[in-house]
Design goal:
Layout lengths: L5 E6 L5 H9 L2 E7 L7 E6 H10 L6 E6 L3 E12 L6 E8 L6 E10 L3 H4 L3 E4 L3 E6 L8 E4 L8 E3 L10 E2 L6 E6 L25
Parallel strand pairs: 1-4, 2-6, 7-10
Antiparallel strand pairs: 1-3, 2-3, 4-5, 5-6, 7-9, 8-13, 9-12, 11-13
């Protein structure tokens, strides 16, 4: 669940951009913490390798952490923004928002397809359109991922966000009911036509067969 991974951070002085570059060269990641209960934004540094590992392997939701600031206490936080080098894809800076336990938050959660669609067994190809969904819930109830069951999808059918079953502790946050996954129909495969409805029997007149 969320907040299960603790990251250690240290306060830092805000200086020139060259100083930030030296921090990165030393294996540190510049960061900012802000949110309710704080006097103002706090400038921090994290161990780059530790943070990257947490983003890739943390057991809980990888947008929610407990941030342990040296000399300042531990805070439940949400990763709000990350600045990434467009060439190396190395993270350059991250922003954390302090959250309040007991109050719902909205956060994006990875979507994982489970099950084998019946349409795939008939030659179709499963295609995933959305890889995450935004849900609302208490921070401690936010899962690492949400599973979308595609077992019942036939050829040509689509699963939408509103059809994904969520735990009772979560609600879907959406503006558009986007498709999550669909079973595409390859060329040469025809959809099975529905059987025509049986024609009604003619009404019988009284006294005649």
């Amino acid at each position: 669940m969320g907040l299960s991974t603790t990251l250690k951070a240290k306060p830092r002085e805000v200086r020139s951009s060259n100083h930030a570059g030296r921090l990165r060269a030393a294996g540190l990641l510049p960061a900012v913490l802000y949110g309710p209960g704080l006097a103002g934004a706090q400038s921090l540094t994290l161990d780059y390798a530790e943070f990257r590992t947490a983003c890739l392997t943390a057991e809980g939701n990888r947008s929610l952490f407990t941030l342990d600031v040296e000399g300042g206490g531990a805070y439940p936080v949400m990763l709000k923004e990350r600045q990434v080098d467009p060439v190396s894809r190395r993270m350059l800076h991250v922003d954390f928002l302090r959250i309040e336990p007991g109050k719902p938050i909205s956060v994006k959660v990875p979507l994982t397809l489970v099950g084998k669609a019946v349409g795939v067994e008939k030659g179709g190809q499963i295609q995933q359109a959305e890889r995450e969904m935004t849900v609302s819930g208490l921070p401690e109830a936010i899962p690492a991922q949400i599973e979308a069951d595609v077992t019942s999808l036939a050829l040509g059918q689509t699963l939408h966000l509103s059809q994904v079953k969520l735990p009772a502790s979560l609600t879907l946050v959406k503006t558009v009911d986007l498709p999550v996954a669909a079973v595409a129909v390859p060329k040469g495969i025809k959809l099975e036509a529905e059987a025509p409805a049986a024609a009604p029997e003619p009404a019988k007149k009284d006294g005649k067969k």
